[in-house]
Specification:
This protein has two domains: 3-342, ANL, N-terminal domain (Rossmann fold, 3-Layer(aba) Sandwich), CATH 3.40.50; 349-450, ANL, C-terminal domain (GMP Synthetase, Chain A, domain 3), CATH 3.30.300. It contains 13 helices and 19 strands. The protein is of the alpha/beta class. The termini are far apart. The chain has helices at residues 3-17, 22-32, 37-58, 60-69, 90-100, 128-144, 163-175, 188-201, 210-222, 243-253, 359-372, 401-412, 447-450, and strands spanning 110-114, 122-126, 153-157, 178-182, 205-209, 233-237, 256-263, 267-272, 278-280, 285-290, 298-305, 316-324, 337-342, 349-350, 356-357, 376-385, 388-395, 421-426, 441-443. The protein is globular, with a radius of gyration of 22 Å. A hairpin with a 5-residue loop joins strand 8 and strand 9. Helix 2 (22-32) packs across helix 6 (128-144), helix 3 crosses helix 4 (60-69) and helix 11 runs antiparallel to helix 12. An eleven-stranded mixed β-sheet has the order 4-3-5-6-7-8-9-13-12-11-10, sandwiched between helices. The structure holds zinc ion (ZN).
Amino acid sequence: MNRVISKYCFYLPVTVLKGEMVLPYMPSYRKFQSRTPDEIKTLQLERLKNIVKYAYENSIFYKREFDAFGVVPSDIKKLDDIKKIPLISKEDLVNSMADISVQETNFLNSRKTTGGSTGQAVTLFKNPSALARERAATWRSYEWAGVTMGSPQARFWGVPLETLDSIKYKLIDVAANRKRYSAFNINACELMHHYNSIVKFKPAYIYGYVSFIDEFSGFLSQNNLTLPSSIKSVITTSEVLTDISRENIEKSTGLKVYNEYGCGEVGSIAHECEHGSMHIMDDNLLLEIDENGFNKGEGEIIVTDFFNRATPLIRYRLGDFARLSTECCACGRGLRVIEKIHGRAYDLISDSSGNKIHPEYIMYIFESVKEKFNCIQQFQFIQIDKQTYKIKVVKKNNYIGTVVEPYITELLTRKVSPHSQIIFEGVDAIEREKSGKLRLIKSELSADSVK
Ligand SMILES: [Zn+2]
């Protein structure tokens, strides 16, 4: 569909009907990115004060928590004062949703269920203007990848299994000018079908799960296939983008990859610019790094959503890990930068004493195996219990278990007890989660036993 027709006849009318006025926000979001870091901090402080005051006055949960910690909204005089406020977790959201949410009668509030594939699912509410701001920040970032609102999208994603949901998503996809390619049943026949459809559809960009786009890219280069010239970029999301995947996608498609990081609870959190920096959506949220138990400058990501007044989220622990960059980006944008994000696609691993092991360490082991032996097609690391780890590997022909397995074990036991049980299992493929996501590092321990 033509981009202008899609934008003005479908996308915008649908969002307006839902009360989400995205378009009027766009100029201010474009302007925000060129502000200086100090100007951004000033605006953030104002937004932080507003949401803290609102939550204290309207949410039963926050009033109770603030009172218990002896904090009042007027205590927030600078951004750092946010540390006076207690953190909240996904468990808090699940257990206290009714008290956290503000009992507004706005029928336009949207329900958003998130996190079902990687843990406990939670349903929260979003008011239309908060959603409109999320979308504005997202479109602003897609502009960095040469994509504008309404541009046709080839979506490499999960497809709902229920018929009713499937019809609903088909309608949404038409309104959003996108075609969905299913992350389930990936095989040569399906990938060829996707390729032919993309050639006909002529999208402006490819969007979706890293692992799926990676597979598709490999298929393209194996079969010497080229993508239509209408495609300007690839936007990857939802899974961790490793250097290996990025290299493979860029080489096979001839397109630049822009990574996106976000979550259902707050929407867009960071996007990659033309210079490869992950800029934080400082306009919509305050991102902090909780260094507790980690090296300086890195730790768990904590976010405060400035605009969600239906389910206010203040100091919400995301369960993801990252490092804040101190460098300014060459693109000149004043938005802060995070690096080395380890999303929930990577679970936290622990040793038998309960000490946390950064998922980056596991990735490091397998990157090192690749460099040294290049004998593993794909892997999955699973923590079964406190001292049992299973490593599933899709072996290449040159895999020699007696060489590579002791090597992995040696690297792993630098972090976990040498008495741990490490089980290697050869598999034909790594199974995807119900959502279609691939989880490379996963823990079957409950969250509580890890902390
Ligand atoms: Zn930049």
